[in-house]
Amino acid sequence: MNNDIKRVAFTEVQIRKRVAELGAEISRDYKGKNPLLICILRGAVVFASDLLRAITIPAEIDFMALSSYGASTVSSGIVKIKKDIDVDLKDRHLIIVEDIIDSGLTLDYLSKYLENHKPASVKICTFLDKQESRKVDLKVDYIGFPVENEFVVGYGLDFAEKYRNLPYIGILKEEIYT
Ligand code: IMP
Ligand code: MG
Predict the structure, then answer these.
(1) Domain 2-177 carries which CATH code?
(2) pLDDT value of position 178
(3) What ranges do the domains of the chain cover?
(4) Which atom from ligand 1 is nearest to the alpha carbon of 68?
(5) Which of 99, 102, 108, 129 is catalytic?
(6) pLDDT in tens, 97-156
(7) Quick one: three-class SS letters along the chain?
(8) Which residues line ligand 1 (CB under 6 A)?
């Protein structure tokens, strides 16, 4: 295990099993609908690539990159789009794929932004959910695992761009980020 990690929250094996379940659920729910997964860069890239392969119906993927404006430590809810979608969203079934939802402000903004493109539907799939930290009422349709309010890394999630390549979800030691 990496020395900066206090504890493993979800092992590779647990992750693989849960992602397979989510893929099966989405395949059932979207049969005949050719959903478009919208992967939020960069954190969701590992989850989205596993999820895409766990989906057994025709499905597509595109990418968006977002950044939060305003005060550095407090999420302002004002989001800047650094990379937008390249395909026409009209009448498409969209599934936003995110690594973790914390305050919910980023996805609250994004789902409203996507609704403006007149898609057939917009749903949210997050690998991890910090439910207790929610600041807005956000409907999350697919959740990998709920997590406590601790800083987690690995499986795409970073701290200062590090640890994204860990194959498991780990809880970072406090002394690393304080
Ligand atoms: P929010 O839901 O708008 O507050 O923002 C969620 C974003 O904050 C996620 O996409 C992550 O980039 C980041 N984030 C929140 N909690 C964690 C964590 O525990 N580890 C790594 N990134 C996190
Ligand atoms: Mg993110």
Answers:
(1) 3.40.50.2020
(2) 85
(3) 2-177
(4) 3
(5) 102
(6) 999 999 999 999 999 999 999 999 999 999 999 999 999 999 999 999 999 999 999 999
(7) CCCCEEEEEECHHHHHHHHHHHHHHHHHHCCCCCCEEEEEECCCHHHHHHHHHHCCCCCEEEEEEEEECCCCCCCCCCEEEEECCCCCCCCCEEEEEEEEECCCHHHHHHHHHHHCCCCCEEEEEEEEECHHHCCCCCCCCEEEEECCCCCEEECCECECCECCCCCCEEEECHHHHC
(8) 43, 75, 98-106, 151-153, 157
